[in-house]
Fold these 3 entries.
Entry 1:
Amino acid sequence: MRNLMKKYALLAEDIQESGLDVEQIKKDLKAQVVELPSWAVGNSGTRYGTFRDKGAAVTIWDKIDDCAEIQRCLGVTPVMASHVCWDKTDDGRFSPVREYAAEKGLRIGTVHPDTFSKQEFRFGSICSPVEAVRSATKEHFKECIRMAREMGSKTIGMWVADGTNYPGQDSLAERKHRLFDGLKALYDLMDDDMTMLLEYKPFEPFFYTTDVQDWGMSNLMCTKLGERAKVLVDLGHHVSGVNIEQIILALLDERKLGGFHFNNRRYADDDLIAGTVNPLELFLIYFEIVNARLSGTPTDITYMLDQSHNIENSLEGIIYSVMNIQTAYAKSLLVDRKALKAAQQDGDVVLCNKIVMDAFNLDVEPLLAVVREEMGLTDTDPLRNHRLSGYHQKVAATRKEGILTLGGA
């Protein structure tokens, strides 16, 4: 720890010399909040199968316990997102969920409806050509709003899994009209202080068309719905090569960026640990967010994880993801923007990039260690904190074998 403090002192000195306020940077890092996905702490996998961990969460109460352990180690994850597909109670009441979460130092965040798991969704949910299916989905939305109210949630995370597999299978124009009609039904059910976050995905589970296929369609629907509908960006829901940070900037500028599902991908919706495959992308996303905030653009964003931990321990994968998110955010705060602006005005392309990459290449672990210590965490290394706690051994000895829980959208 002494060596770490020496490194922090040197880093803090460099930060001050570049004209940045190290105390404000620490304040920003402490204020960061990342929502934990309830569905990711259980056994999750792929369509091919699931490797089960002994002690993995089975009930919603288990999930709250696991998220409380993650929050104990990290200090920036006091919110648990919920998915109605897997978060059920025996009596159908959800105010006890809110109360138990509060006892554990948590609150319930984004609630996600189900548009993909039922047999009747073969041809879609709100976009289905079958009117009875569309009506049943709208009834399901009523139940979701009830659950959200009982749990104290103010955000509805909407992934419409609908699409087609073959040309001519359905009228694409009619599906677009059904899409808006279904979303408006949900939007009209929401309380005035609730927000809808509309996710998009280019393919899967359907492969010819997806009804909310990209950020443009999501933004179009949200704009038509109203101010309380915004775009949700899942990092894995893009084809290879898409510049996600440019999408982020555009949505921020239009006041339509509502939230994230953080994960990492190599090819498509891989749902890997955030910041592992492409940490530069995560840093550049935060770079644009911080730029927008400093310019006065509102950045009221819901940050969530959405991952599937098939071969690694779920809690460790989540903790490591948040650590990588903290690292990316810290580096984005350390960009010398004054020097960058001058280089941009001079047209010095190489220097512009070097200033950004210098921040990306910084070792910010000493800074994050001090932030965690000042937050009162018992260990400045969250992953080590969890591993040494004996938590995994405890739940493995007391919980029954976990049931199958597929990953999120």
Note: The beta strands are 35-37, 79-83, 107-112, 155-158, 163-164, 195-199, 209-210, 229-234, 257-262, 302-305.
Entry 2:
Amino acid sequence: MRLFVAAWPDAPARDRLAALELGRAKNLRLVGPTRWHVTLRFLGDVAEERLASLGDALVACATAQPGPVVCRLGPGTGWFTGVRVLQIPAAGLDRLADTVRAATVPFVPEPPGGEPPFNGHLTLARAKGRLGAAAQADLAGIPFEVAFPVEHVDLVASKGSPAGHVYSTVVRAPLGAT
């Protein structure tokens, strides 16, 4: 299974995100509301026999993490340099991402050379093929700010489809639960 650990925006944050005016630029594939998330750690392909132990470790680390944690999106949209991803920076989740990484590394080791540092963001769209400079400039820097509480983290399975990836929660791990 292709897995990642995610924090999801709450309903008011999703409503605000849905109101963003991103237009319909050619070669731009918008990410739908059911896929908006902040990836705390990408795990890649994980053998099914590791799922139970991985899920237990995630629940244990989330339970020990005081919650909720506040995630702040903003101050505006931007493009990742060299990557065709339109995103909004996400702040406030660094400690949670570190805790998730520490809990999951025994089951999904870091790649040789280590993992890149956590770069919290929420993906809004992906450019497919060539996107003109004017379209890129129009979409960068759109002011946007919202904060939402993260009350749980999810172990999520990602399965490719012609319409984009389909996500399903495998394990939900509430923060600070006793």
Note: The first helix runs from residue 11 to 18.
Entry 3:
Amino acid sequence: MQRMDAKVPTSATAPGPRPTSRPAPPTAAMVTDLLRGVIDPELGGNIVDLGMVPSVDVSDEGDVTVTVKLTIAGCPLRAQIKKDVESRIAVHPGVRAVKIEWGEMTSDERSAVMGRARWQAREKAPDTEIPASTRILAIASGKGGVGKSSVTVNLAAALAAQGRTVGVLDADIWGFSVPRMLGMGDRLEAERVEGSDRPLIRPNERRVGSGLLKVVSTGMLVDDEGTALMWRGLMLAKAVEQFLRDVQWGDLDYLLIDMPPGTGDVQMGLARMLPRTDLIIVTTPAVSAQKVAIRAADMARRSFLRVAGVIENMSEFTCEHGTTYALFGSGGGETLAHEIGVELLGRVPIEASVAAGGDSGEPVAISGTGAAADAFREIATRILTETAPPVSMAGCSARLLDAVAVALGPKPS
């Protein structure tokens, strides 16, 4: 009987190490859907529906090339559009790199874009009362007790102190605390508004320097702040939806949303209604807080929201003798920022003035002194100049609209 020996693989046929698996790249259609979250603030529509994205290509390796046509070559919004396009596409785990190829519209294409913009303004009512030019920042955390509401009101005050109009939406329906922290306890009222088929809620307002705060909270609807709201999850999401649809926000540079802790109905509803929202995650230096906060980042990415940065609150305490103590550990904010691939926007130390300002309704960022007040102001400046700068309305489309208005002559009386 003939003996059959097993064939031994040679070095040429021996299997090599398994390639590291990586997420599959998105399809061109998926990238196009992501780009619907990039809004042209002057035309009030997303760049896909406005016809500004003629082509999207995705390689097998996950390299995405997007062609974007601007109304004019020197559009001053180009840098902002570039940042928004890159950040929206980069949330997909299968994307390796993003390249934008720029073009300029022909006169016919510009006419078509203006036609779409006019049609949308006339026929397609916005889903919310939030202006398209508003920068929306959701201040979020994975768990309670990290000082998220304190960070929200102090950032809002610091932005307003720099001459901005800032909306504050207290979406922590059960745990509302914004009214006390800002010293604004008046009840909300609704009024008839010209051009609206229903009464709209008027936000409570407070001047801060040359800026303005506009605030809405369920704490401004109850008899007193000790009243418990016993609502289920669906009711919470509906309340936030009403604050977005039925409040006469008016012009806003920023809208800061004080989110409830966790990743529940309110967070999912916000992602659906305001897909252009950016998240800022608040954590403490403790490892336990950092590990919970990463879930908020995971929720944002699953909902294709951009995480703009991390703020480490209660970072350390310095006593009157100058000795510094890391009461809750150290490095948690930096570790979280590195793990999710975003900036650490700043660290806010523990100071009694922060708590005292919240209790008295005078946020420390308005007129306080010390390291915490300075930290809030520095973070606000960083948001204004780098992380989420306000939208300039003196850009390319605005000039185009002005030219059209001049060509058409004065409005009919």
Note: Residues 107-123 form the longest helix (17 residues).
